[in-house]
């Protein structure tokens, strides 16, 4: 595990990617006694599941985890067995903050940066590589998306339907989201405001964001039912 990048002089080759893993959230919607990234699925934390799968992607050179600030040492310990170059930093008060803190330690020489929720624990390495490849192919910002399967309505503050939205134009957005490093750095420096994903910050700057097909296995474990679904996917050996 790499503790201090500046002291280590990591060697990189063109096309290598770093994956930033924001994992500092509380997991209020999931509940439980520990932050969500440390909740277990089949005896392993969601964070270890996510990091192992990201590390298995051929394009990944470095993983930076943003941990809950009071648990940085515990998270380092938890990740000791993962075969990857890894850095753990203290996360921030929001996801965006946690990503910014992780981005700040990515060494020069890594031109592609992916941002990937620890909560998307079962994301296949192939999706990580597909996003990195699309960035390598020339897109400044790339997001994996799925079609929306429910009918979507806009509802007003009284609970009344204001409109039915044309879902053919809608997509559910996942992670990893991939960026040319300079695009992500600029977005974090200049977009302002709070955003629920990194691509939103790039959009705010008026820059293009390209979509690639997502994966149902990259579901975000958010509510208790999602943990049950993830367990079932592992049992059925559908997830890697
Ligand atoms: N201050 C924060 C908040 C969120 N995250 C991370 O961002 C990812 C996506 O967030 P989400 O799934 O919404 O997690 P939580 O914020 O923990 O969930 P909740 O809103 O239910 O508390 C998670 O891996 C989470 O750990 C983070 O690194 N730092
Ligand atoms: C980044 C993300 O996973 C893309 O769908 C999502 O926006 C995170 O949202 P949350 O507000 O942290 O749940």
Automatic annotation (TrEMBL):
Pathway: Isoprenoid biosynthesis; isopentenyl diphosphate biosynthesis via DXP pathway; isopentenyl diphosphate from 1-deoxy-D-xylulose 5-phosphate: step 2/6. It catalyses: 2-C-methyl-D-erythritol 4-phosphate + CTP + H(+) = 4-CDP-2-C-methyl-D-erythritol + diphosphate. PROSITE patterns: ISPD. It comes from the Bacteria. The keyword Chloroplast does not apply. Signal peptide: none annotated. Gene3D superfamilies: Spore Coat Polysaccharide Biosynthesis Protein SpsA, Chain A. The record marks 29, 36 as: Transition state stabilizer. Its EC number is 2.7.7.60. The record marks 167, 220 as: Positions MEP for the nucleophilic attack. Keywords: Isoprene biosynthesis, Nucleotidyltransferase, Transferase. It is an enzyme of class 2 (transferase). GO terms for molecular function: 2-C-methyl-D-erythritol 4-phosphate cytidylyltransferase activity. Catalyzes the formation of 4-diphosphocytidyl-2-C-methyl-D-erythritol from CTP and 2-C-methyl-D-erythritol 4-phosphate (MEP). Belongs to the IspD/TarI cytidylyltransferase family. IspD subfamily. HAMAP family: IspD. This is 2-C-methyl-D-erythritol 4-phosphate cytidylyltransferase. It comes from Hamadaea flava.
